[in-house]
Amino acid sequence: MKLVKMSLAAAVLLGASAFAIDNVKVSGDAKLYYGTNNMGDGDLFDQGGLINTANGTGGSYADAALRLGVTGDLTKGVSFGVTGYAVSTLGLENNLVGQTWTGAHSATIGNGSQIGAAVNDEAWLGELWIAATLGKTTAKLGRMELDTPLAFSEKWSIVPNTFEGAVLINQDLPDTTLVGAWVGKNNGVNAIAGFNGVVSNTPVAGIDRVVGADAEFGTFASDGAYAAAIVNNSFKPLTAQAWYYNVVDVADAYWLQADINCDLVKGLTIGAQYANIDPKGESLNALDDSSAYAFKLGYNGVQNLKVSAAYSKADEDGTLRIANVATANLGAAQSKLYTEAWWNYGYVGAPDAKSWNATAEYDAGIAKVGAYYTDVNVDATDVDMNEVALTVSKSFGPLDATLAYVSTDADDQNNGDQYDTVQAYLTLNF
């Protein structure tokens, strides 16, 4: 790992010297993720086959990923960034695990069955951008991560989805940020493609449904998307934001959010959200609007302790979910609603979902511990989901380690029976 880093860094620095590139920085990380569950008749740490949450067949899944990023200044006010990703199972498939984390892998049938398929390693450029700043205006063009309420890079998995487009940010108005964006392509799983948890005869890798096969970039949604936003902090305890999206021939959407630090009770925070997605276009205009609202109370007045409670309600008539439109929106896309679960995505933003979430995080010095409870009732489909997640995290110099336990009891998973999940996350930063 050090040799790879040093070799690439040396090449970049030599190039920077030749082309007068300043302030070159090289950074990255290596990750190894492992998870296992005892769905169906299986036991924890069994290899298992391809995960299918609907009928209760589970097992174990693992992946390794390498991220290497380079940033620098081309000239005054002009900078660039390049980030490369590589993923590999390290040969764990068909040995210790039966699945992978990311869907970026392609697979090759080895013995006529999916369980015997060989999972291929993949490498790609996740970011390749150039940015220019003039006064208080910055323009960024190329391939990049995005973090907006309804279209964003999901970073909970081992590699994130990214986008190709342009972003313009202006801060000339006091305490105000204006944002305009165009997204033309992304490598996320098709936003509108359905996902029912069933695997066909074609080899499919990955449990996350975040990055598509081969991490290939394609047109975002139907014909790209526009976004505009205003974020204001004129009243210092309050941060208010409003986002508008025009996903061409798919939907118009907006997201409103306000978060305030309460002056009356030190450490108390209050948040409110409202979102609406209005389908349009030849194939979607007959669908009903989707909307949801959420409220959150947080408290961090006790040293090293953060607690919060949140509630959300989604409109019963919608079809699209109040969740990421850049990944599998009709399946397990992550949501920015306050009530989002720690592990079981795809529920809180579903039509007619009523959700509760309680979170407690404590830094005990020797380690950081977290406890997360999510309860969702989706009346439209008569599905209840209950999740309890416990985490312990510890850093050992450049190595970050997390151990997680998740208890899931969902009507549409594992034939309605409760099951356990254990996961380990290792990240070496360099």
Quick overview:
With 430 residues, the chain is mainly beta. It is built from one helix and 22 strands. The chain is globular and about 60 Å long.
Question: How does this model look, in words?
Answer:
The protein has one helix at residues 2-18, and strands at 22-37, 48-52, 57-75, 78-88, 107-108, 118-119, 122-134, 137-144, 163-170, 176-186, 218-219, 225-232, 238-247, 251-261, 268-279, 290-299, 305-314, 353-363, 368-378, 383-396, 399-410, 419-429. It is mainly beta and 430 residues long. The strands form two sheets. The protein has an 18-stranded antiparallel barrel. The chain has a two-stranded antiparallel ribbon with strand order 5-6. The chain is globular. The termini are close together.
List the helices and strands and how they pair.
Blueprint (H helix, E strand, L loop, with lengths): L1 H17 L3 E16 L10 E5 L4 E19 L2 E11 L18 E2 L9 E2 L2 E13 L2 E8 L18 E8 L5 E11 L31 E2 L5 E8 L5 E10 L3 E11 L6 E12 L10 E10 L5 E10 L38 E11 L4 E11 L4 E14 L2 E12 L8 E11 L1
Antiparallel strand pairs: 1-3, 1-22, 2-3, 3-4, 4-7, 5-6, 7-8, 8-9, 9-10, 10-11, 10-12, 12-13, 13-14, 14-15, 15-16, 16-17, 17-18, 18-19, 19-20, 20-21, 21-22
Characteristics:
mainly beta; 18-stranded antiparallel barrel; two-stranded antiparallel ribbon; disordered N terminus; 430 residues; single chain; 4% helix
User: How many strand elements?
Assistant: 22
Terminal residue distance: 9 Å
Number of separate helices:
1
Summarize the biggest pleated sheet.
Answer: 18 strands, antiparallel, barrel
- Percentage of residues in DSSP E strands: over 45%
Q: Average pLDDT value?
A: 87
Structural class: mainly beta
Rg over CA atoms? 22 Å
The general outline is: globular
Q: Percent range for helical residues?
A: under 10%
Order of helices and strands: HEEEEEEEEEEEEEEEEEEEEEE
Low-confidence stretches: 1-19, 52-56, 193-203
